[in-house]
Structures are given as structure tokens and as C-alpha cells.
Amino acid sequence: MPTHAPAAGGAPAARTLPHLPRAAANGLAFRRIADADMGFLSALYAATRAEEVAPLPWSDAQKAAFLDQQFQAQHAHYMEHYPDADWLIAERGGAPAGRLYLERWPSEIRVIDIALMPDVRGQGLGRAMMEDVISLAGAGGLGVGIHVEKNNPAMRLYERLGFTPREDKGVYWLMRRDAD
């Protein structure tokens, strides 16, 4: 597979893209993020937090500004703490549809983040991506780890895929699926 231009943040993208055949069979293609994707990624972040901010007594503009600020902080944190990660945009029909951020460690592949836009959720795409990550990890004898908010509806999917809570992190569970 080809390598791509430097990822956002200036880090070179020397590795090939991870092989994600189930996601591809479901119409997803992956590429590394670029600076031009920041608007989409901010909108994706906002879409994942829309229910949280809906009851706040703020104007739509205040909510949008808050969510963009939170996205910028999250993005900076990810880039600082996971400099060697695979920062991937999931595209469907040539348009951005989600993100998949992966870090490879000696004992596991850590799913830093996985998210899809609302219009493509519920179609098995997240499951396909996670099954691909599990296969990728399994090929190297690795487990898979992910932090999951305790009220995240995807928790049921992760449990069906063999993930179990390993550590209580307050609002998150650190979940892990050991290597087969």
C-alpha cells in the first residue's frame, strides 16, 4: 500500500496504511489526516458531543465555539501523547465519514479514537473497523485496548467483540481484548 503525505502536525507518514478489509468491503477507504481535514474533524467531534451540549443554556454559536475549543484541545493532546499513531480518515464514496486513530505498542494496538458521522452510524461500519483492528492485532499476537465512556452505546458492541473492562478511569472504562 502506498504511503501518504505527512500527517497533520508535521509528522512523516512513513508506515503503510493498516490493512482494513472488512471496512473496505463495507465501502470505507482510509487515508492519513491532513491539515485540510481539521474542519471535518472538528465537525465530527461536535457530532459525537451534540447530545451532551444540547441541554446547556447557551446559544448555538456558544455551543459550536465550545465544541471547537474542546476538539482543538483533544487534537493537541492526541498529537503530543501519541506521536507515532496512525491518524486515519475513513471515507465513504469519496467523502469523509469518520476517523480511526491507532497506536501500536509492544503488547497491544490501542484504539485512541474511533468515530463516525451520524448519517453513517448503525450500518456496521464501526463493527467492521473494530474487527479489522482485532485481526491486525491478532496477526502480531497483540491485544487491543480502548477507553470507552461508561454511557457510550458502543459499549455493547465492544463487549460482543470480546472486550472486557480492565480499569475504571472515572467517566471511562479502559477495555481490553487479549490476543487470541
UniProtKB/TrEMBL annotation:
Residues 28-180 form the N-acetyltransferase domain. Gene3D superfamilies: 3.40.630.30. Keywords: Acyltransferase, Transferase. CDD domains: NAT_SF. The keyword Transferase applies. GO terms for molecular function: acyltransferase activity, transferring groups other than amino-acyl groups. It comes from the Bacteria. This is N-acetyltransferase.
